[in-house]
Amino acid sequence: MRALINVLYLVLIFSLAGCGQLIQPSLKHDLVEIKPGNYSLDKQHTSILFKVNHMGLSTFVGRFNEFDASLEYNADDITQSRLQAVIEMRSVDVNNEKFERALTGKFWFNTEAYPQASFTTQSAERISDTQVKFTGLLTFLGEQKPIDLMVTFNGAGNNMLTRKYTLGFSAHTTFNRSEFGLDQYIPAVGDAISIEVHAEFQRN
Q1: Chain-centre distance of CA 185, in angstroms?
Q2: Fewest beta carbons within 10 Å, which of 40, 85, 103, 117?
Q3: Domain covering 25-203 assigned CATH 2.40.128.110 in the classification
Q4: Helix (H) or strand (E) segment spanning residue 51
Q5: Domain range annotation of the chain
Q6: pLDDT, tens digit, 9 for 90 and up, residues 100-120
C-alpha cells in the first residue's frame, strides 16, 4: 500500500511539473502567523555569500558550499527565538581553485587551525511584521565578536513537493575582518565583509 501511495504521489508531482501555479504554496508572511517550533536547514535551497570591496573598483563575491543551521522559532514571543549556524571554511568557492587554496591557507582563513566559523544568537528583537534582528556571537579565526544579523522572513507554508512545512528567509550582516585579526591588504581589499544568507528551513 505504501508503495502504491508513493507511486501515486510521484505521478501527481510529475503531472503538476508544468503548472508552477498549482504547486506554489499559500504563504503566511506575518511573524505571528508562522508556525512555531524547531526548524532544520534545507541545504539544497540555501546559499551563503560573502562580499568585499576590491580596490574601490568592484565588489568581490564568493560563497560557502558546506554549512548547517537550526532555528527555534517562537511566534508568541519572538525574543525567545534562537538561531545557530556553522560554516565549513574549507568549502569556500570563488570560482578559482588556485585562489581557493590560498584562501584556506594560513595567510587567510587558516582552515587547518580554524576549520569552522559559527554564529549563535544571544537575543532576538522584532523589528517589523516580517523582520527580526538576531544579536549573537560570531566565532571566526578563534575570535568571538558580537554582530547583528538582520533577518527578513519571506513567508512560510506547506511545500507540496517535500510535504513539509517550510519557512524561507533572507539575512544579512556586515563586520570588519580586522577585528578578527584578518587585516591583510587593507584598504586595497576592504575591511568590511558583507554576508548574505538566502535560506529555507523545514519544520521538524
Answers
A1: 28
A2: 40
A3: yes
A4: strand 47-54
A5: 25-203
A6: 999 999 999 999 999 999 999
